[in-house]
Amino acid sequence: MLENLKQKFPNAISEKVETADISQFAWFEDSMGGILGIPRFEISAEEIRILELLFPSSLNKTNLITFTDTSWNTFLTKPNAQLPLTSWENVRFIHFKLTHNDFSHADFEDAFLAFVPSDAALIWEDDMEGILIETNKAEALSNKELLAISSTLESDFYVKTRMFTGRFHHVSQELHHHKTQEKKCFESAQAELPDLKVTDLADIVPHLLLKHQSNTNIEWYINQVLGRTRQDTELIKTIKTYIECNSNATLAAKQLYIHRNSLQYRIDKFTERTGLDIRNFRHALTAYLLILLHD
C-alpha cells in the first residue's frame, strides 16, 4: 500500500536519512516495517487523519523534533524578557484554551502540530491554555480550518477547545504587547461569544467598544484591523458608503459615481488588506465602527 501512496505522492521518501529535517514530512509505517514520508505541503490535514487510521502506528513521534521553545515561552510569559533569536520576520498568535487537563499534553501537542506548517511553535502557558505561533512563510490557517482542527482534537482527546486568531506582527519587542492585548480580546470573546469555537478581532471588536475602552485600546484595534488601509481615503469612503447603503452595490456605486465593477474591485481590495469580509454582518459592523472612530 505504501508503494501505491508513493505513486500518488511522487515526492515522498522511503528513508528518514534522505532528508535533513524529518519534521517536514508526515511519516507512515506498514505492518512489514516499511516507512514512507510525505511532504506536508503535498498532503492535507484530512488525508493525514485518514492515513493514520490505516496505519495506527504510522507517526513516529519519538523521532520528531520538539516544538516547545523555552526562549519563546520565556519571552511571551515574562515582561521585558529578551526577544528570541529567530529567522522569522512576521508571526501571529493563535490562542487556545481547553476545558480540562486530563490528557497527555505531549500527545495533544503532536496531534495539533500535525495539522499546521512544520515551522510553527506551540507554547503552553499553563495546563489548559497555550499559544500556537504561526509564521507567514506558508498560507495562514483560516478560521474554518481551525474549526475543523478543533473538532478533530475534541473527538480525539474528549476536551472542548476555544481558539482566537490574532493578526500578523513584525517580530520585535512589541510582540509582548500584542500578545497581551489579544489575550484580553480572547477572554472577552469567551464571555461574549460563547457559541463560537474560533473567533478573531473582527468578531469581538463591537463588544469591546461598548465597554468604554480607552483611547489607547481603540487606537490598537484600528491599527490591527484597518492598518495602512485607513490612509487610503478613497477606499475608506467607498466601504463606508457601501455599508451605509445596506450593502446594496447598485445604490452604493450610484452614490459614488463609479461603475459597479469598480466598487466590487475596491471591496475585494479592502477584504484582502484587512481580512474583513464586509458581506458578513459582524465584519461589516466592525469595519463601520472602526471607520467612524478613525474619522
UniProtKB/TrEMBL annotation:
Q: Which SUPFAM superfamilies match?
A: Homeodomain-like
In this chain the PucR C-terminal helix-turn-helix domain maps to 235-290
Q: State a single Pfam family of this protein.
A: HTH_30
What InterPro entries has UniProt attached to this entry? CdaR-like_regulators, Homeodomain-like_sf, PucR_C-HTH_dom, PucR_C-HTH_sf
Q: Which domain of life is it from?
A: Bacteria
Check the record and name the PANTHER family matching this protein.
Answer: CARBOHYDRATE DIACID REGULATOR (PTHR33744)
Name this polypeptide is given? PucR C-terminal helix-turn-helix domain-containing protein
Upper lineage ranks? Bacteria, Bacillati, Bacillota, Bacilli, Bacillales
